[in-house]
């Protein structure tokens, strides 16, 4: 269901961008002054869509379903369950967020302020599993957007003087998430 919501949001962004592009082309025929107004409107519209998309991700992250997945994964990582038992829903969430970020649909400082701590904490805890999966499947692209997102959030953290979370304490906190 969440996947459909994200796909629907992507579709809305692409359709809206298409119609805005067509509107700008029409206004270009009207004159340069009108074109500048249209470009300003497009920028404001793009920012608005970015904020709405961030809210969709925020709602998804705080949904009871994903909170439960976060708790389950935290428990699995703390108890060192076998790799085939690991549930990847949380990693998939950050992979999706990383993809949207990489494509330029979200402002990095908005992502950082909302998800930076979690992206860095989850990456730090999941990286050993992901490394093993990459080796097992001989595919270095597994969770690549998650990795890049976490790396960028970590860079911003350093610029703000924020230290990476203590990984064990992070998992304990996620176990108690509600």
Q: What do you see in this structure?
A:
There is one protein chain. The chain is 81% helix and 0% strand. It is mainly α and 178 residues long. The longest helix has 30 residues, at 32-61. 21% of the residues are buried. The model has no long low-confidence stretch (mean pLDDT 84).
- Summarize the helix and strand pattern as letters: HHHHHHH
Structural class of the helix and strand makeup?
Answer: mainly alpha
| Rg for CA atoms | 19 Å
Sheet-strand content, in percent, reads under 5%
User: Based on CA inertia axes, which overall geometry fits?
Assistant: elongated
Show unreliable segments: none
Total E-strand runs: 0
Write down the domain tally.
Answer: 2
| Average predicted confidence as pLDDT | 84
C-alpha termini separation:
20 Å
- Tell me the helix content: over 70%
The count of helical stretches stands at 7
């Amino acid at each position: 269901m969440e996947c459909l919501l994200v796909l629907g949001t992507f579709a809305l962004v692409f359709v809206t961008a298409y119609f805005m592009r067509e509107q700008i082309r029409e206004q270009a025929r009207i004159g340069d002054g009108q074109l500048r107004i249209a470009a300003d409107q497009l920028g404001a519209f793009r920012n608005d869509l970015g904020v709405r998309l961030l809210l969709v991700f925020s709602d998804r992250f705080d949904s009871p379903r994903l909170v439960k997945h976060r708790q389950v994964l935290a428990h699995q990582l703390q108890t060192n369950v076998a790799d085939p038992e690991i549930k990847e829903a949380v990693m998939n969430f950050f992979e999706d967020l990383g993809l949207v970020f990489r494509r330029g649909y979200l402002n990095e400082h908005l992502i950082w302020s909302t998800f930076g701590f979690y992206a860095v904490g989850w990456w730090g805890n999941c990286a050993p599993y992901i490394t093993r999966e990459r080796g097992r499947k001989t595919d270095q692209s597994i969770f690549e957007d998650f990795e890049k997102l976490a790396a960028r959030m970590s860079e911003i953290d350093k610029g703000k003087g924020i230290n990476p979370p203590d990984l064990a304490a992070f998992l304990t906190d996620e176990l108690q998430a509600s």
